[in-house]
């Protein structure tokens, strides 16, 4: 009877470790999705701002230079926005965070199930917490969208409700 109780405890511990591993892996993949979306958003905004600035700047060289003061103001405003918001820096930050989350997911997947240990799962959890500590504050709706995408990819789309349409549209701008 004693060996049977020990076997049950061992199975429960193995199940707990596996659950912790799966939760950390899922969270890592959600972070990859989130930071890749933010990276693409800031890349689009950065390129859009530069493109519009270039187009407006080129129009200043036309023969109507004296009558287009509003164009110069627009160029200055776009350039100022790019400097103040630092789109390129934000894009790079999210790129690095996505790469770190992807590395964590790869490290988790790399370890065979029979080698799973409390020390290893604790190390993965600690790495995930460090990753979250480095990240800027998340946008709530975008996080929910990424969690739903991951749940759907894992085969459980009903676990995370879909955000309303307008919130999904504004997810990159508003929490």
Quick structural gist:
The chain has 175 residues and is an all-alpha fold. The protein has six helices and no strands.
Describe the overall structure.
By secondary structure, the chain is mainly alpha-helical. It has 2 domains: 24-136; 138-175, no CATH class. It is built from 6 helices and no strands. It has helices at 2-59, 69-85, 87-110, 118-134, 140-153, 165-169. Helix 1 runs antiparallel to helix 2, helix 1 (2-59) runs antiparallel to helix 3 and helix 1 (2-59) crosses helix 5. It is elongated. 20% of the residues are buried.
The overall pLDDT, averaged over residues, is: 89
- Unreliably modeled segments: none
* Run of helices and strands: HHHHHH
DSSP strand content: under 5%
Number of strands: 0
How many H/I helices? 6
What is the number of domains?
Answer: 2
Element layout with pairings:
Layout: H1 2-59, H2 69-85, H3 87-110, H4 118-134, H5 140-153, H6 165-169
Helix pairs in contact: 1-2, 1-3, 1-4, 1-5, 3-4
Task: List descriptors.
single chain, 175 residues, mainly alpha, 6 helices, elongated
